[in-house]
Amino acid sequence: MLSRIGLSIRRWRRRFSRSEWIASLLGLSTSGRQPHAPGLILIQIDGLAYPELLKALARGRMPFLKRLIRKEHYRLEHMYPGVPSTTPAVQAELFYGVRQAVPAFGFLVHETQKLGRMYDPEVAALVEKRINTQQRDPLLRGGSCYLSLFRAGTKTGEAHFCPADQGWGPALRSASPLTICILLLTNFWSLIRTGALIVVELILSLVDCIRGLMQGQNFIKELMFIPTRVGITILTREFSTMGAKVDISRGLPIIYVNLLGYDEQSHRRGPRSAFAHWVLKGIDDAIARIWRAAHTSDRRHYDVWIFSDHGQEQTRPYEELYGRSLGDALSEVLSGLSKPPRIEPGHSNRGVQLERARLFGSEWMDKDVLEQDPEQSDGKTPLALTALGPLAMLYNLDLNDISREDVARLIVEKAHVPLVIYRVDPSSPSSPVHGWWRHGPVRLPEDGRKLMGDEHPYPDQAIADMISLCSHPDAGDFMMYGWCSGEEQPLTFAMENGSHGAAGPNETHAFALMPEDIQPPDPRLGYWRPQDLRSAARAYLRGARPMKLDEHSAPEKTLRIMTYNVHSCRGVDGTLSPQRIARVIARYRPDIVALQELDVMRERSGGLDQAERLARLLAMDVHFQPAINLNEERYGDAILTHLPVKLIKKGILPGPQKGKGRLFNPAADEPRGAVWVEIEHNGNKIQIINTHLGLSRAERLRQVDALLGPEWLSNPRCKGERVLLGDFNALPNSAECKRLGGYLHDAQEQAPRHTPKGTFLKVRIDHIFLSAGIAVKKVRIPRTALTRQASDHLPLIVDIEVPFRHRSQ
């Protein structure tokens, strides 16, 4: 009855869903309703380092993410983005599995010998074309993306705010005036909310502008940052959030959203600044709205993964420190060569001034195009410098018999660049990589640890990537880094206070916030890479991966037991999904699982063997006891475990007396059974009995007497520690539970610092009873979005400690 009411409410909510209306009015395609099929939403918080996320969580800036960790059983993981630590490099690795697709955000394009930036549509398209020639399978095929530099397999019109696509622009332009009016009316509250946020952000931007001017910042730069800040922190965030919710209502299999606000504020004010952390509150709210939409979808079973593509360093601009740009400094330093190229400080011979631009114009980037006079070039490629963030690259320098080591030494000693590395022979990818820093020459990888220092979280990985980057076809002949060990504060070659793109300890320390049952491809590493995230996403979307519960990190003598009435794997939303039940179990990584109400080959649940399916998904052994056995259709209880197990007994318990318990509830005729196995753990043999008792009090009392009798708990074979668990359909103060309490102890009442909680409509009818020698360490009854949907019961999870007993010889 309650399930039918809940399903009716969900249907009516869907009919009045704004997201459903938008999709319908704009004629956007939808996938067929597949509520059991997996869907994935990838949310990227651009530029947020792992240490800064911890600070934001501690300061209450991101309450929803904190709730995911505390209540929804998400796990905060480290992630190494690689070098260069830039968004396009991470996106290429995530979407296509290609590492170091670009050497930096801005670089000299090998094919055209022109300087380009990754937000230029032609450059982004060229890089993606290179990747596609390797026949890579794009991750976002059939899905959508917001604020991505690559289309990554999305169809035309599904890449929003991206260099190469117009998103829903054509659909909006072709919509009738009536359609536009209806869209505005149905989304009136969202528009009011967005407008209010814009006003608030404008006020904060003006305050920030005044502070910047008081600190001596340039007036024009401060003024230009106001519309940029509003556009990035409010408009793109709100439009991307609304768009993602529409795509969820359409049932797209995978959706990628990049939230840029923190990264943009960090570039301007620094990653530790109050304004940058203030933006995280809005990002947290946007994630909460997307997450709630995902968990109320009836088209797919969506999962939400949250990660950052890199961190940021709190940097000091090179120009601010030395009073000139890196291009000017190199022009002077390189004039000491025997036959120096003619380089004019600050601009090229063509009169191209330093270009300062970024998406929406907010990141002040120095990009010097330094060329020889065309008449004197003799067909040679132009000398060029790209200087973006803490990584600069010098191209096509005519050495004129000067050694590369001398050039690197001059750049470090005269131009005050912390570290310069190069290949001894640029024409050979296997040539050794040497360099220079303030202490003299270095060789890689031999001196890598010295350059990275003890504070770096990934020194070996970063050095390996720096060596590999020297061989990139678009990399410079000399790679100049604004940070190495011993520098008080990293340098950036742009006019910004926060920076990334190189190998610093914070910029290479990203995070991944994942559901606990999603394991990295190689847990031994202790961190993720974007390629690992791609592999996990592909495995999740295939929906058939074992969840390897034997890898949980409980102490050896601790045993985790779960009892769970799974309601034939049909959730309160009406969705039949053994995969969802498996995810609930996997999220808590129990050693032993007692399940009730499983269907095996029943027509009502699609003819699936649910016991076998769950065991395969969880990589566990299973013993199933059918309480109902009609032809090929069966229904009953099971025990699953990854520990050594032996079946002792399974059978039917006494039913109600004739003529009683049938008048008002036909389900009272349902037979009830039990299954008994012996588990070996840490030198002990533990007896586990799973049962599901009847609906009437008299029937339950007969069944309890049977369980306490010589066929079950009083059986001579039932020696040692004993656990009786399942759905007893009885409250703790009932005669049935009191009778059991004379022989066994209720785990919820024995647990330290635990208040007993209900598992079905907030009442306690699922129980775990333990023999006297077993100590209860912890009890959990997770009431999360997933557990509230997956079944009408909540799982009961108990960590126990069994004393070691020597077996007699």
TrEMBL record:
GO molecular function, one term: endonuclease activity
Domain Endonuclease/exonuclease/phosphatase residue range list: 562-793
InterPro entries xrefs: Alkaline_phosphatase_core_sf, Endo/exonu/phosph_ase_sf, Endo/exonuclease/phosphatase, GPI-anchor_lipid_remodeler, Phosphodiest/P_Trfase
Source superkingdom: Bacteria
SUPFAM superfamilies: Alkaline phosphatase-like, DNase I-like
Pfam families the UniProt entry points to: Exo_endo_phos, Phosphodiest
Keywords: Endonuclease, Hydrolase, Nuclease
Protein's name according to its UniProt entry: Endonuclease/exonuclease/phosphatase family protein
Native source species: Microbulbifer epialgicus
Species classification: Bacteria, Pseudomonadati, Pseudomonadota, Gammaproteobacteria, Cellvibrionales
